[in-house]
Please model this.
Amino acid sequence: MPYINVRGIEHYYEWVKKPSNSSAKPVMVFMHGWAGSARYWQSTANALLDQFDCLLYDLRGFGRSRGKPTIAEASESVAESQSPEAAAAAIEELTYELEEYADDLAALLDKLQLQRVYINAHSMGASIAVLFFNRYPQKVERGILTCSGVFEYDEKAFAAFHKFGGYVVKFRPNWLGKIPFVDQMFMARFLHRPIPKAERQAFLQDFLEADYDAAIGTIFTSVSKAQSEVMPQEFAKLIVPTLLVAGEYDQIIPAKMGRQAAAMNNKVEFALIPNTAHFPMLEDAPTYLRRVGEFLQIPTAVN
Model:
């Protein structure tokens, strides 16, 4: 499998593209959400092949990408310009703040020599993308945020969420994936319409295999008092033309949160996909792709 070293961590990535006799196509980068992987973007990327070369990658600690290595492992991952001690120290300083993940993406694009790209990001990945748009606007042509928004801080609700999330991340035995219908129960809260069994099972497997420190760390950094204060400011200062897509029945990031975020900036266009929840690109691919195509002013089709 293709891996690339990004800031001392091995990241999984793959290109989804097809040959073209015309000039080079623009690149669209896809970013997944919490405890997921690039796998669930595969069908969307395939539908956009006529217009884009699609780059899919797994965030640090999720999917097939490594989490933070031990000190001994970090010492073996040495940049030419660094001593083993300096390289290990740099990796050890990496945190699970969303800003760090935005910097991971910048380093990935530099490694692949990509100057300017389109980005489609989902859920937690969309929060990372907003930070990336503002930190590196020169690298982004246009952005699509799928299931994103702003939220208000609620101390009791956040404490309960963090406590429950901690239990969920801690109790992830591998045998769980072998129990019949567990994939359906696991995905029930995320979906309004059914998706294929293979995709449900892939979601469950990604969750079971996610690095513990990354999974628990990003629960605390993505749903926090700090993020409730930062994200409205980040949305307000966006200069990158952005489409924010929401699922009508999304229980994870309700559509009203997306509508509120879009209202903060005239660079952000809001689109509601009826009868879908947290994965509108899988629950109603034709409608999702049509809306994306309208925003990008390109023809789209479902394979």
The CA atoms of residues 67 and 213 lie 8 Å apart. The chain has a mean pLDDT of 91. The first strand starts at residue 3 and ends at 6. Strands lie at 3-6, 9-16, 27-31, 53-57, 117-122, 140-146, 242-247, 268-273.
